[in-house]
């Protein structure tokens, strides 16, 4: 088994944004909401945290059987818009996985994983009619869900959901039964986070997670329902609402998800978010593993590009996993010129500080002052 597989589990997650229902308050800065799920307090990793739907990739997501459902024309990688020459390729997407078979490219399998997990955890089915795939293009704007009349009756769909939870291969059977395919084209590569060394869950659980963006238009956020198991609550919130709930200690959001919500804060319109996400995706992304720096009064998660980020970060934790300093956070902030870090003064007092140019045409997070909904970049705060 390669070191890649030994040290972390490969996973996919989706920032699912939905708008178009006119349900948001007219005073809201945002015309869309994002789906957050609360993990069970019994979870071995991030118990009770709010996260985006997602989970570990399964061999069924790589199954050659998908080839019979997915459109026959052309070699599979061409199913998805090709990346630009020189795009960032996170190792997750480039890795060979002979143990899982090589029928499907990782970009396809990780999307299937994210879509399957969204059904398992929230009951939301991101499918498209098999016959409509050829005309599916993200240039048309945010995606549509299947019409309700194309879905089985509620109790039957709930039974399918339980089957998929028990056996991920049942997801392909469901798609075949509905003559539909996972809407791979609605998911846009967004980022890739590796759980930091020193933050593994019980049993050393660390994850290499592909983050996708999916924007749904038309008809408002779909009903999401938790599974009373792995997930104990589902909620649709605007980026500001989610950040406010975090700051007021009503919910706890893990740092990568917090960072991503602060990036979404740049976009008040679902159409702008969709356009940005779908056009940017051809640039790819790089893998980020935060490196923890423990200060005397809190800790900082350093990210690539920060001047304190190690040249040769310890990916496996076998060398010097956690950096320490006797200094206070304030001093570590004053001294620094190049910032790319998540600063945690305590569990709910977390700020993203970044003043470097983002790579791969991405956008930097905004620092949100949740009291007034104001934002500023870190330069202007220092
Ligand atoms: C990987 C997951 C999708 C969970 O998988 P599961 O099979 O259990 O459903 C999810 O956890 C996820 O999206 N993770 C991606 C990013 C990540 O690893 N986040 C956690 C980082 S740990 C951390 O930063 C702790 C911070 C602290 O303690 O201060
Ligand atoms: N009722 C429950 N309460 C807590 N965790 C649960 C659960 N049912 C399933 N899980 C956990 O959820 C994880 C599956 O997540 P996913 O399908 O999103 O990858 C598994 O964790 P582990 O993989 O850590 O064992 C599994 O143990
Ligand atoms: Mg999960």
List the helices and strands and how they pair.
Elements: H1 3-7, E1 9-19, E2 32-39, E3 50-51, E4 54-56, H2 66-69, H3 91-94, H4 106-122, E5 127-129, H5 154-166, H6 170-178, E6 180-182, E7 188-194, E8 207-216, E9 231-237, H7 239-247, H8 255-264, H9 270-280, E10 287-288, E11 291-295, E12 298-302, E13 323-324, H10 329-335, E14 340-344, E15 350-354, E16 367-369, E17 374-376, H11 378-381
Parallel strand pairs: 1-8, 7-10, 11-13
Antiparallel strand pairs: 1-2, 1-4, 2-3, 2-9, 5-6, 7-8, 11-12, 12-14, 14-15, 16-17
Helix pairs in contact: 4-5, 7-8
Bound molecules: ligand LGS2KKIH, adenosine-3'-5'-diphosphate and magnesium ion.
The site of the ligand CC(C)(COP(=O)(O)O)[C@@H](O)C(=O)NCCC(=O)NCCSC(=O)CCC(=O)O has 18 residues, from β1, β4, β8 and α8.
List keywords for this structure.
eight-stranded mixed sheet, 11 helices, binds ligand LGS2KKIH, binds adenosine-3'-5'-diphosphate, 382 residues, binds magnesium ion, 24% helix, single chain, disordered N terminus, alpha+beta
């Amino acid at each position: 088994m390669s070191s890649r597989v030994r040290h972390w589990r490969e996973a996919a997650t989706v920032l699912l944004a939905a708008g178009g229902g006119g349900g948001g308050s007219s005073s809201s800065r945002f015309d869309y909401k994002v789906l957050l799920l609360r993990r069970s307090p019994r979870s071995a990793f991030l118990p009770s945290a709010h996260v985006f739907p997602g989970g570990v990739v399964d061999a069924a997501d790589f199954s050659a059987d998908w080839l019979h459902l997915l459109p026959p024309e052309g070699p599979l990688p061409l199913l998805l818009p090709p990346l630009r020459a020189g795009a960032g390729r996170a190792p997750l997407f480039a890795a060979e996985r002979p143990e899982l078979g090589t029928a499907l490219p990782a970009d396809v399998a990780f999307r299937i994983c994210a879509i399957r997990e969204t059904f398992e955890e929230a009951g939301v089915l991101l499918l498209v009619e098999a016959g409509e795939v050829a005309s599916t293009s993200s240039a048309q704007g945010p995606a549509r869900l299947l019409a309700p009349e194309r879905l089985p009756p509620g109790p039957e769909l709930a039974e399918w959901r339980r089957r998929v939870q028990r056996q991920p291969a049942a997801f392909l059977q469901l798609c075949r039964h509905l003559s539909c395919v996972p809407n791979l084209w609605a998911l846009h590569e967004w980022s890739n986070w590796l759980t930091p060394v020193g933050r593994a869950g019980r049993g050393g659980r660390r994850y290499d997670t592909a983050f996708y963006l999916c924007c749904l238009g038309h008809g408002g956020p779909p009903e999401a329902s938790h599974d009373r198991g792995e997930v104990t609550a589902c909620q649709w919130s605007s980026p500001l609402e989610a950040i406010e709930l975090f700051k007021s200690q009503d919910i706890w959001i893990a740092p990568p998800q917090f960072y991503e919500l602060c990036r979404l804060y740049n976009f008040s319109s679902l159409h702008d978010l969709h356009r940005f996400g779908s056009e940017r995706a051809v640039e790819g992304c790089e893998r980020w593993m935060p490196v923890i720096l423990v200060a005397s009064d809190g800790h900082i998660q350093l990210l690539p590009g920060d001047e304190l980020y190690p040249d040769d970060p310890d990916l496996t934790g076998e060398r010097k996993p956690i950096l320490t300093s006797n200094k206070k956070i304030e001093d570590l902030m004053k001294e620094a010129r190049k910032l790319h870090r998540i600063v945690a003064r305590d569990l709910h007092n977390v700020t993203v500080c970044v003043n470097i140019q983002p790579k791969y045409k991405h956008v930097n997070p905004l620092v949100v002052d949740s009291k007034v909904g104001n934002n500023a970049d870190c330069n202007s705060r220092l």
